[in-house]
Amino acid sequence: MSQKRVIKIGLCGLGTVGQGVWKHLSAHRARLEARLGVKLELHRVSVRDLKKQRAVKVPAAKLTTDSLAIANDPEIDIVCELIGGTGLAREVTLAALARGKIVVSANKALLCKHGAEIFTAARKSGGHFFFEASVAGGIPIIKALREGLVANRFRLIYGILNGTCNYILTRMALEGAPYAAILKEAKALGYAEADESLDVEGWDTAHKASILAFLAHGVWIKTEQMIVEGIDRVTQADISTAATLGYGIKLLAVITRDFDTDEVFVRVHPTLVPKGKVLANVNGVFNGIAVAGDVVGTTTYIGRGAGQDATASAVIGDLVDAVTLLTTGKAVALGDDETGSATRSGRGVRLASLDHVTSRYYIRMTVKDQPGVLAQIANVTARQHVSIASVIQTAAEPANAASLILTTHHSNERAIRSTLARLAQLKSVLEKPLLLRIGDFEE
Ligand code: NAP
Ligand code: HSE
Asked: Model confidence over 381-406: pLDDT tens digits?
C-alpha cells in the first residue's frame, strides 16, 4: 500500500483564532484526512510569548517565536497567518508566497492595505493566497461571491460585517447595557481586534468592505476613499428614538455600483435599518450580508461573524481547499488572475462623486431651547437643499437645552456634509451634530 502524502502546515499566531484552528483541526483531523486522502501535520507554531498559558496544549518542540522561519521552512506546504496587523504579517505572507507556498489568512487589515502587492507576489511565484476568514467570520461569503454568484453583477452589497459592533449595539438595544462594559465583554469573548478602535471606529468593517468590493468589482478601494464612521457616538437615546421611528441601528458597510456610469462607492456607518428587514434582526455577534445580483436577485447570508470557532471554521475550509490544490493541482474557485475576480475587471470603474451618493439622514443635535432655534436650523438645511422629513424634540442636559432629531428626505453626501458643518457653527448648537444614515435600500 502506498504511503499517504503528509501535508505540513505552519501556524503563525496562536491567539483566539490560532487556538481555534489547532483545537478544531486536531478534533476533525481523521475525518478531513480520510476525505482528502493525505495526512495533515501541524508542523510548527509561532507565538510572541513562549511562556503564555494557553487553552490548547502545543508540544514545546513545535513552538517558536520566529514566524519568518515558518514562512521560509522548505518542509512546510501551507502557512496560516493568524498574527494580525500589517507589519510582521505582511513579511510572513510575502516570504511564504515567494517560496511558492499557499498562505491562508484571516487578516483583513493586511489584505485591504496590501492586497494588490500580495496577489502580484502570488502570481509571480506560483504561490496562492486564501482569505475566507477575513470577512464575516464563519460565513462563506468569499466563496459565495467567487463561485456561487459568478453569473451576477452586483449593484448593491450591504451588511453587518463586524461582530463586536453588532454585539455592542444589540446589547445596548435589548438590555440598555452600558457601551464600555459590553465592549469589555466583547474583548473577553475574543470578538474584538487587539486594537478595539479598529472595531468601534468602523475601520475593521471598512477593511472587509474593501475586500468584498474588490471581489465584486475588481478594484481596491482604500479606506481613505470611503466614508468610514463608527458606533462610538451612538447613544442609548439614539437607539430608543430609532426604535420609535421603526428602525434598529446597525453598523453597515454599503457597496454600490452604478452600471450606467461605472461608479462604485464604499461607505461604513451606523445606519437606521427598517425593523422589517432581515438585517435589522441579525443580532449579537452575528453578521449578515445582503447581495443584490442582477441574475439571482437578492441573497442574504447570516452567521457568526467573529470569535474563535466561527473563524476557525473558515480557516479550516481554506486549508481543505489548499490541500485540494496541492494534491490535484485544481484551484477551487480561483480565476486565472489568482484572486478570483478574473471575471470582474476593474477597468473603467471609478469612484462615485459625493453628489451621487444618496441617502435619507438622521441628525441629532443638542441645541439651546429658545425661540428661533428651529428656524435657524431650517434655514441652514434649506440653503443646502436638504429637505426635512420630521423633527423630534426632547429635553436634554444641560438645563435649557433640548435634543433635536431631524430626519430628512433623500439628499446626498456633499449636501449633508456642508449642512452639518454649517449647523455646527450655529451658536445655538451646543455640540457637534451626530449624523446617521437611514438605510431604506432598494434591493
Ligand atoms: P490574537 O488573539 O491577538 O492572536 C495573535 C497571535 O499572534 C498571538 O498568538 C500572538 O502571540 C501572535 N503574535 C503576535 N505578534 C507576534 C510576533 N511578533 N511573533 C510571533 N507571534 C506573534 O488575535 P486573533 O483574534 O487570533 O486574530 C488573528 C487574526 O485573525 C487577525 O488578523 C484578526 O484580524 C483576524 N480575525 C480575528 C477574528 C476574531 O474573531 N478574533 C475573526 C476573524 C479574523 P502571543 O499569543 O504569544 O501573544
Ligand atoms: N473584530 C472582528 C469583529 C473579528 O468583531 O468582527 C472578526 O473579523
From this structure: 999 999 999 999 998 888 899 999 99
pLDDT digits (tens, 9 = 90+) for 232-287: 999 999 999 999 999 999 999 999 999 999 999 999 999 999 999 999 999 999 99
Domains and CATH numbers, the chain: 5-137+309-337 (3.40.50.720), 141-304 (3.30.360.10), 357-438 (3.30.70.260)
| Percentage with pLDDT > 70 across the chain | 96
Task: Report pLDDT for 222.
Answer: 96
Candidate from 16, 132, 164, 208 with most ligand 2 atoms within 8 A of CB, to mutate: 164
0.90 surpassed by pTM: yes
How far apart (Å, rounded) are the C-alpha atoms in residues 247 and 131?
33
Give the mutation target among 83, 110, 161 for probing the ligand 1 site: most ligand atoms within 8 A of CB: 83
Minimum-distance ligand 1 atom for the alpha carbon of 52? 47
Distance 297 CA to ligand 1 centre (A): 37
Distance 323 CA to ligand 1 centre (A): 23
